[in-house]
Hints:
The protein is an alpha+beta fold. 26% of the residues lie in helices and 27% in strands. The chain has helices at 18-21, 23-30, 59-66, 69-77; strands spanning 2-9, 35-42, 49-56, 87-92. It has a 4-stranded antiparallel sheet with strand order 2-3-1-4.
Amino acid sequence: xxxxxxxxxxxxxxxxxxxxxxxxxxxxxxxxPGCLWFEWSRSLADPTEYVLVEAFRDKAAGAAHVQSEHFLxxxxxxxxxxxxxxxxxxxxxxxxxxxxxxxxxVSDDA
Length: 110
């Protein structure tokens, strides 16, 4: 799978509204057949920073995503709300879903 984590620093005046601003792009991406997940979180340390964790089934699904109409639209509509160019980590990993974090395994007795 293609695993991507991106940090978006949003202009302070848009920080509270970012989930709504990115909503159409988020829903459209989540509806792509090759999208495994596409989830936003907000930084606890910086309320203007949102972290996007996304994964696509394979390179073809990732390519389809960046060529989609909603991605092209997001490239036009999202940057005016940003304080800086998003930072990204993009890697291919040989798995198809989340693995369990064995070091913090939760037993049925908990």
